[in-house]
Amino acid sequence: MDAALLLANLANPPVLFFFLGMLAVWLRSDLEIPQPVPKVLAIYLLFAIGFKGGVELHKSGFDSHVLTVLGVALLAAVAVPLWTFFALRRRLGVPNAAAIAATYGSVSAVTFIAATSLLSHLGVSFSGWMVAAMALMESPAIVIGVVLARRFGDESATSFEWRELLREAFFNGSVFVLMGSLVIGAITGESGEASLAPFTSGIFKGVLCLFLLDMGLVSARRLAASREIGLFHVGFAVLAPLLHAALGIAVARMLGLAAGDALLFTILCASASYIAVPAAMRFAIPQASPGVYVPMALALTFPFNVLVGLPLYLAVINHLWK
Amino acid sequence: MDAALLLANLANPPVLFFFLGMLAVWLRSDLEIPQPVPKVLAIYLLFAIGFKGGVELHKSGFDSHVLTVLGVALLAAVAVPLWTFFALRRRLGVPNAAAIAATYGSVSAVTFIAATSLLSHLGVSFSGWMVAAMALMESPAIVIGVVLARRFGDESATSFEWRELLREAFFNGSVFVLMGSLVIGAITGESGEASLAPFTSGIFKGVLCLFLLDMGLVSARRLAASREIGLFHVGFAVLAPLLHAALGIAVARMLGLAAGDALLFTILCASASYIAVPAAMRFAIPQASPGVYVPMALALTFPFNVLVGLPLYLAVINHLWK
Amino acid sequence: MDAALLLANLANPPVLFFFLGMLAVWLRSDLEIPQPVPKVLAIYLLFAIGFKGGVELHKSGFDSHVLTVLGVALLAAVAVPLWTFFALRRRLGVPNAAAIAATYGSVSAVTFIAATSLLSHLGVSFSGWMVAAMALMESPAIVIGVVLARRFGDESATSFEWRELLREAFFNGSVFVLMGSLVIGAITGESGEASLAPFTSGIFKGVLCLFLLDMGLVSARRLAASREIGLFHVGFAVLAPLLHAALGIAVARMLGLAAGDALLFTILCASASYIAVPAAMRFAIPQASPGVYVPMALALTFPFNVLVGLPLYLAVINHLWK
Amino acid sequence: MEAVKRIEIIIDTREMREVCRTLEALGVTGYSVIRDVTGRGDRGVQSGDELTDVFKNSLLLTAAPPESLAGIIAAIRPILKRRGGVCLVTDAQWVIH
Amino acid sequence: MEAVKRIEIIIDTREMREVCRTLEALGVTGYSVIRDVTGRGDRGVQSGDELTDVFKNSLLLTAAPPESLAGIIAAIRPILKRRGGVCLVTDAQWVIH
Amino acid sequence: MEAVKRIEIIIDTREMREVCRTLEALGVTGYSVIRDVTGRGDRGVQSGDELTDVFKNSLLLTAAPPESLAGIIAAIRPILKRRGGVCLVTDAQWVIH
Ligand SMILES: Nc1ncnc2c1ncn2[C@@H]1O[C@H](COP(=O)(O)O)[C@@H](O)[C@H]1O
Ligand SMILES: Nc1ncnc2c1ncn2[C@@H]1O[C@H](COP(=O)(O)O)[C@@H](O)[C@H]1O
Ligand SMILES: Nc1ncnc2c1ncn2[C@@H]1O[C@H](COP(=O)(O)O)[C@@H](O)[C@H]1O
Ligand code: NA
Ligand code: NA
Ligand code: NA
């Protein structure tokens, strides 16, 4: 069961292209997808997934089930950074613990998209409005991380304006595009969907392949260059997603989510942010080392989730749900 | 009627994304579509619309109706800069008046595309060969603006070669791609259309959304930064399109254009150029202030036409035509 | 027959856009497709053609016919640089002869893609696995060129590590993407094909048009700027593809290839590399002049093959095969 | 030609806006910015290949009259202290036009 | 090492071609150009985010023998006068190879 | 402020990795790289419009203590000899923070 799913995941083109990117770095190929194209591909993916999620929301509406799930997702985005911070504080110091807490409390949109791609690949249905849960879970951990850093750390060292931080947390480019596309999708509904489908759905999986090829390149490069990463960090970067996934699965079961939605909820808990969070941390907790929290999320947790985590979590869900 | 059309326009995804881009600047999000990607998106849009127009021309041929409309379009592109120059000369001085005359005499391809998108959204048909009218109206105003600046201004100050100017007016990148694609579309006809349709039609509206997101960002930024713009300029930037649209509608009525074509002809008259013209003006009339004529076209007239003008002009046309 | 095919080739949109790009340079338009977008378009094309080839290979499998053709392709990639080197050595000196040998021994993926586009345009079928032949023919000529330069030239002048060179030859970005996509296509087969088709097939021809527009620009610019190119180089750049094509057609006939595959095999022999090879030559044979071997391949042989060669070779094949 | 100080500041792309605001507040009316600069320094490698502008630098160049140098440095130094980066000063001649 | 003048010209991207032609006409055989430079100067902000190269600068750098400096400045100054931009000159050492 | 040597190396983009490795081996811990530089020199025009990084230069800038200059030049010169490119050295002041 497990092995079959693992294979099915590995035979999904986006995952294969991710692996191809990592291979390119290991074989020291000079392959690159030059900037700023990957940035625009990321905007495209957020645009497409946000828009499609908005259209789904238009169809389903905000019933009590949807609202409950969104509320619980928000709670998870508050709980994860809190426990993470207190678990790491002794060992890594307040600034790094706070930054890692924010990183793992927030979510990785690309991992979420990889999860939807796996579900489509396997023909498992899921609710488009789970994108709204993702959008809600991006920002809170940033604010919590900074509050913790100031409360328990050297307050004078974090000189910044709250206005700036809140803007960074809630209006940074990726959150903004995702949220905006979600709202536009919800406004335009089926008519918008029909006219945009070739762009937002037709070429989606192909663009995802190209983007994951780049992600494979970048994450393997970052892994090779990460000198500040020790065994403890590696352990955390692999165990934290497993733990968060276990909790996510338990909560999803209690909420009565269907298998597809359960996987999406689980991956939101288990993934770590390497886009929105680092930008905010660099600005608000400059004493924390980006050479630690970025490679943990980007070069360890992300590949782990994409290559191993997704099929594993789904196997567990399939086992429990049936 | 008016309000319904206004709402229909505002519910069209490209317009919503344009607004989202402006919102991002007002909320001080760091969202951006990094250059040079927007440049390439613009080339794509010109390529697609030119090609499709050429295919239509291949189908319809140049009958006397088409030729008449093209001839009148050319006349409009000569008349608008002439009256604009003499209206503004006293108040703004010869160089700025000439540059603004060229700006408003030429056309905005993106506004034209937004108009076709509104028509498709509403299911109103239009003739693909109107693209040829747009192509014809891009360049003449540039030449007229420069002639006026030299005739009435300080001739010694405009030292440049005519060869260079004509090349700038007729062979600048955007005119060239539009014209070239038009010709290629006309050569290849239906067979070319079939093989390119997923690219030129399928993903077109989606790319337009992304592009207008960027246009919203840039035009809101330009509005915020425009310190040389006074009330007079704002008034002109809103009233000129209204006046030119009224004239355009009158002419379209006399020509017996169908409603869709009438809107396209109207928007060609009412729109102002912020791509081809500024490049030429900077070069040929360096005494004119780009800080005036660019924000007028890009940050005032363009959003006005896209958000308010298009549904307004169409409402008037619908009213008169029925 | 010949003339009809020439016209059919010239009416194929990608070829027309290539010509449009050249025209832009001749008319001194400022049109450009700004970097790094063309680089990413090239990656897209290699990705798409590699993936589709891999899927075909998945369907057909490696039967003895396929293996024979691949083996002969490899032989051709060894034979062409050998004779080229000895033919040019006297006249151009060892380093330039070796670099040109590598250039003409390797292949141009874009020319290959243009050939598939011509075949689709004419409705002639071809085997997707010919892409594997192209992938095999990219690298050997590089190694052979360098071996010849060292064997017959000043060995001390070519100080480099073999490891680096082999990596450059076999793992450079374009070879890597092509090979990787081929393998991924072969792994995922029909299921992958279905989900990626709108990206790899739907928009393919449109992207090819845009890319060839850029190739037209670059190759015309390079032609205008090439001061080191003499009549001898021009002669070689036109006669070599004719000769190699003749040999290719003869071999294809002996192998019993179908007409479409015969054209692809022929164009692999007749085309010259301007992507993978220059990078390797610059590094491994720095005494050779990139101002010679790059314009020969990019500004002479490439346009010759695309505009004249392809229809000519196909006319001969059609004549012989029927 | 006029003697000026050529001041070059390399710093995180995300901090560049603050640097520009600081300079403008000091009355600097002319400067140029190169946005895509990678590098290596005390805070590690800035490889510029990420999706955000974290790990990317920008370079600002301004030619300023010698008497304004002290003020500029006093204003820039705290930013560099907090955010990293370098500031180099060279003597140059400005071609008056 | 050889003493040279390090000349830096920042000007509209669209004017850069003319600058290069002018330098080549003077016999300058080596220069480098950085194309995407934003900035602020007498003629306002050049933000580089537009669809055309209007509102974008380029930077040209050339190391030239001291004796050629006067000629270069004389040729460049009228362009700067007409089109704006700056030209800075620094003393530098060229590493001969 | 501290007196430093401002060293600027313009070379093929593909050679830049070797230059960086060389500098790091000499203990240089800080440098900046601008990747997209076109130019013209003894080996012709580098127009930067190709699909590979052939025909494109990069510029490296490093501020180094004066005593390390000789070592850096000795290490860089052979690369320039083999691969072309230029290296300029200017006196500068480093703003200590
Ligand atoms: N010695 C140096 N010379 C040139 N650039 C430097 C130097 N040191 C640091 N930098 C640049 O400044 C950025 C930030 O430096 P740091 O704060 O020391 O990490 C680096 O990424 C480099 O781009
Ligand atoms: N003092 C300065 N230092 C550095 N760059 C400058 C300075 N003044 C102007 N520039 C650059 O030159 C461009 C044109 O200047 P201007 O013609 O004064 O608007 C500006 O956009 C800046 O990029
Ligand atoms: N005198 C110079 N000043 C500035 N840059 C130069 C100069 N000479 C050469 N370069 C740059 O160095 C690159 C390689 O030079 P070369 O090896 O002489 O062809 C050129 O493409 C230019 O970008
Ligand atoms: Na998480
Ligand atoms: Na107009
Ligand atoms: Na060949």
Quickly give the structural class of chain D. Answer: alpha+beta
- Described by the principal axes of the CA atoms, the overall outline of chain D is elongated
Largest sheet of chain D: 5 strands, antiparallel
Distinct compounds present: adenosine monophosphate, sodium ion
Which residue ranges of chain D are poorly predicted, with pLDDT under 50 across at least 5 consecutive positions? none
Number of strand segments of chain D: 5
Radius of gyration computed on alpha carbons of chain A: 19 Å
* Count of individual helical segments of chain D: 2
Radius of gyration of chain D: 14 Å
**Strand count, sense and closure of the main sheet of chain A?**
none
From the N-terminal CA to the C-terminal CA of chain D, the straight-line distance is: 9 Å
Q: Outline the low-pLDDT stretches of chain A.
A: none
The strand order across the widest sheet of chain D is 3-2-4-1-5
Count, helices of chain A = 15
Structural class of chain A, please? Answer: mainly alpha
Oligomer: heterohexamer
